[in-house]
Amino acid sequence: MIRSIFSRTRPLLALVAIALLAANACGGDDSSPAPSTATAQPPVASATATPVASFPFTLTDSGGTAVTFKEAPRRIISYSPGATEILFAVGAGGQVVGVDRFSDYPSETSTKTKLEYSNPAPEPALALQPDLVIMATRQEGQVKQFRDLGMRAVLFKEPEDLKGVIAQVRTIGKLTGHSNDGDKLANGMQQRIDAIQKRVASVTDGPLVFYELSPDLYTAAPNTFIGALLTLLKAKNVAQGATTQFPQLSAETVINANPQVILLADGTSGGQSLETVKSRPGWSNLLAVKNGRVFAVDVNVYNRPGPRVVDALEQLVGILYPDLK
């Protein structure tokens, strides 16, 4: 049985974004395992910008709003853990003055003013005098409120696949005046992804995987950022056919599917492990459990659509295909 993610909130998955959030989740939510927009929708294009050599240029964000920048922003607020990681990775960390409370990587984020993630009040942001506010899927409904107060807010919905992450890296590089660094980072990520795809080129039948977001069996469907990683590696998803992006499965559904690999995004945050999974009624006979193929994964690396997602992809290759050279 698959139940909607809206049936109840889950504080345990505060770090699952959308993607996360995607990617969202993308990195954080203090009330639910995925963004409030987690019902199945067609893929949303990442914010894009026409490649230019210098300012000024006009960015069209994920909401379709065109925003013109005459120069690189000097005081940036990020309400997206994934975008925060990109900002620092392209060299714009020194321009960041505030981040959402889930933005905890890299360590330099600890020196930035922390702001609320879900339903942030505009006044604390306004006090930081930003000339750019990056807002994520979770804050989509508040973009207008921030703009009405004179803040230059740009909506960056969390990408749903690796292509979208790379596009967002390039865009944020251009937007912050670090175009060369953004392109260099994006090119390096693409090269690593290409190498991974070559490694799995010979795979014809990937394993069936259950990606566990929480002990009450929320998971990620194929039409999510996490699901896209599994698809790229030719793995099959227990949540195939789900009607929402982050469905809650029944134990019966998982047991009947009999996954060959179980990935625990709730390993550290939820205390789940091979032993706890084995102790669940009916789970000890699953192929993944009998073969010891139950793995805890870093929720922030796997669920955030940022530069570290390629690290997650490389780790996944080793987990799914331990014998692959």
Description:
The protein has 325 residues and is of the alpha/beta class. The chain has a domain at 48-193: Nitrogenase molybdenum iron protein domain (Rossmann fold, 3-Layer(aba) Sandwich), CATH 3.40.50.1980. The chain has twelve helices and 16 strands. The strands form five sheets. The chain has a five-stranded parallel sheet with strand order 9-8-7-10-11. Helix 4 (162-175) packs antiparallel against helix 5. The chain is globular and about 60 Å long.
Q: Concise description?
A:
The protein is α/β, with parallel strands linked by helices and 325 residues long.
CATH architecture of the domain at 48-193: 3-Layer(aba) Sandwich
Class by helix and strand content?
A: alpha/beta
By DSSP, the count of extended strands is 16
Do you know the CATH topology of the domain at 48-193?
A: Rossmann fold
Largest sheet: 5 strands, parallel
Average of the residue pLDDT scores: 86
Rg calc: 19 Å
- The CATH H-level homologous superfamily of the domain at 48-193: Nitrogenase molybdenum iron protein domain
- Series of H and E elements: EEEEEEEHEEHEHEHHEHEEHEHHHEHH
Oligomer: single chain
- Helical content stands at 25-40%
For the record, what CATH class of the domain at 48-193 applies? Alpha Beta
Distance between the termini: 38 Å
Strand fraction: 15-25%
- What's the arrangement of strands in the largest beta sheet? 9-8-7-10-11
Count of DSSP H/I helices: 12
